[in-house]
Amino acid sequence: MKKGLSKLPDAEIEKCEQHKWIVSIIQSYALLPENTLKNQSEEPAWETPVVGFSRGDDPLWEQLKRDIGPFYWTPIEIYRQTFLEDDAEPEDLTVIAWILPQTETTKKESRKRKRFPSERWARSRKFGEEFNVKLREYLVNEFKERGIRAVAPQLSPLWSMEVSEKYGLSSKWSERHAAYVSGLGTFGLCDGLITEMGKAIRCGSVVAKTTLPPTPRPYKSHREYCLFFSKGACSACIKRCPAGAISEKGHDKKKCQEYVDFKTREYINKNYGFDAYGCGLCQVGVPCESKIPQKTKKF
Fold it and tell me: Which domain holds residue 92?
């Protein structure tokens, strides 16, 4: 019996152990050679992942669906569409979400850029996301070996981009929203997720048929960590955006996508010699780059 668990019921001890096991395998996987920028020195793409959990019946899932659009998946919807014969209920599921923080070297290099992404940032977007895909698959397979059904919504053949009447370009599942529900961060003016490791990150998630304690959400509002919304005291990401896609009205997804899909792809191909896209300039050189800039009690 491990110290601190002896007074808990057996079922609760098992949940605590599974919680630790999940965090351990995610963080251990990040130590493998797969976590690489694939540059000459084979630098890691990401620092140690931060992991959060949320219940499949958390009311926020239905709230997101109502807000974003009827196409948006709740955890039970993607689970049932994956395992058609399973009669699971929302309360039977847990969403495991994680944050992959950019390395200090990548952030330092990217801060100097004004128009196009640095090579390390472009590599993290391409090869770092390839690692993220493998991490999702690895976690699903680890659950399977334990007899637990799980699905990575982002990798499902049913996943697709959609158009939200309210928000424009959207998708059936958002990794950032999964992290938000799982207690890992809130959204900034540019729509980036501000976490304890800052905004220079990527996210991933898996839905599993297991019941684990959720990570407490230390915020009341989905914009709480953003200084622009909490204090009206920041517009750094507006100035950092080379596409003019961020203003006090928010994030222009169409303008951002056009810049990223065409101009940055052309630049990366020509200057770095591989096919990729990405920008990320609004995620560095800002107060929320590497931390929560200021926790606020009032929205």
Answer: 10-283
